[in-house]
Structure formats: structure tokens, C-alpha cells
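Known limitations

Files may contain more than one protein. Parsers should not assume a single record per file. Below, a two-record file is shown to illustrate correct handling: read the sequence, read the C-alpha cell line, then continue until end of file.
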Amino acid sequence: MEKRNESKNKEKGFTLIELLIVMIILGLLAALVGPPAIKKLGQSKTKATKAQITLLETSLDMFRMDVGRYPTTEEGLNALVQKSQNIERWDGPYLKKGVPNDPWGKPYQYKCPGEHGDFDIISYGADGKIGGDDENCDISSWENVK
């Protein structure tokens, strides 16, 4: 009877070796799955940026139809959500939820007249700097494929 009580009193659990093996397996899985998942996240942010630029272009076209011109660089994209004093036929807001930041949390750069068209809209990507590759690449209205 004493042996039965002793075995009941012993706590069951994992040994240190078992825990180390599980941690190694988890580390290997993270190393295999992590990089492709991060790459997909970067690609989805790039696609979201292109979609937002298209939305901004459409809103700017609606602004132009009402006002007769695109907002100036000084008025910026905020003219799509808030009327300036020098705008007469404004019938906005042209964006329901305000001017979005790019998926990396940085404001879009807007210039009118643009160097590549009536206006230029650009996101400098994850690093916020001109140029770059992959997630750091610039995404612009003149290179945005619709």
C-alpha cells in the first residue's frame, strides 16, 4: 500500500530535456515559417497602398468635377475632407473616413501640379525614404497599375 501512495504523491510533469526538445522544434518551425509570412505581410501592405492611392485618385477626380481643379499642393489631400476658404463649389467631404496614412503609418506625399501628371501621390514605403526595394520601395500614382 505504501508504494501506491508514493506513486500518487509524485507529481507528473515534463523533464528539462523534453522541454528543450519542444523549444528546439518550435524554433525550427519559426525559422521555416517566419520569413515567408513576413514577406507576404510586406506584399499585402504594398497592395493596400496601391488600393489607397487609387481611392485618393478617384476622390481627387470628384473634387475636380465639383471645383474645376485639383487641390493645390498647399491645400493638400486635406481639401478632400475639409473645405478651404478659397474653394467655392466644394461639395465634400470626398473621403468618408478622412485622409488615410499609408499602411506604414506615414502620410502620403501630394503635389499639384505634379511632375508626372496633373498631380502626384507617393508613399515612400516602410523606410519612409526615397527609393528602396521590396517593402521599402516607393509606390506612386504615376506607376500605380489600375
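...continuing to the second record:
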Amino acid sequence: MLSGKQVQSRELTPSHEHYLRAIWAVRSERGYARLSDVARELEISNATLSVGLKPLEQRELLSHDDRRFLVLTPSGERVAREVHHRFQVARMFLHDVLGVDEAQADAEACRLEHDLSGQTVERLLDLIKLLREDRELREFFQRRYTEYHRQCRPTTECATCDLACMGTPGPGIA
């Protein structure tokens, strides 16, 4: 079970996590990962990536093979897979459950993947799986969610109202 950030991953910056995930993705797709391939995937310069990889090498999350291709160590691959897992779950929740369009779901999941805890990721995944497996619940949820519109009217005060319109939490709603 990939349950979110481990201790080693928590100490990494979002950029470092992106680098590891990109290396893993490129190697998975092509069987090898050159610096230039990963830089292109991340839409950054080779020089920026080269500098950014040094801390990952020092932490022994990354190395180079005899052809100078980028290779994740077992620890590096574990972090990359965890980040990818968090991304996929966040993306599915945003797109499949909330109905956020695909491009926006991708962009926002990319930001969320760095801050979601393992517990939150697992509960989101439980909700996604429940909705996929329970056709009656899924249809009810989709119908009600599509029809539902808040009764309060968003104003400039909403950002500072502490969600007063939510009232007292109901049973099971914390």
C-alpha cells in the first residue's frame, strides 16, 4: 500500500519530488532516462535539473548507470512511486468525483501531491473506490451533486466568514 509521504519524502522539496517522479516516469516509458529527457518532461533547462539532482544523489535516492543514464535507487523509486500515487488519487478525486476538468485536475493534483498525508490519500481512495463499486450510490451522488447548489450567495465576505453558512456539523460531518 502506498500510503503517502514517508519520512524521507517529507524532507524533500516539491521540486525534488517532481524530479524523482519524472525520472521514474521517463524510465518506465522508455527503459532509460537521460538528463535531457527528464528536463524536457519537466519543462526546465538541463542546467536547472543538473543542479537540482545533486541533493538527490547526496541522499542516495539517485545514481547514474555506466552510460550516465539516471537511475533511481530503491529508496528513490519508492519516493517517486509514492508521489505518483498521491498525484493519481488527487487527480481522480478532482476529476472523477468533483467533475473538475482534466487539465485543471492535473495542474491542481500536481500541487496537492506534495501536501496530502497518507491518511487523507487512503480515505480519498476509499471514497473513489466506493463510488466506483457501488453503482446505486454513485448514481445517487452524481445526480444530487449535479443538482446541488449552495443556498448562500458567495460574497467578498465569504473568504473571511469562517464558513458560518455551514452551521453546526451534522452526524458524521466533522
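Parsers that stop after the first record will miss the second one. For reference, the second record is described as follows. Confidence is low (pLDDT under 50) at residues 1-9.
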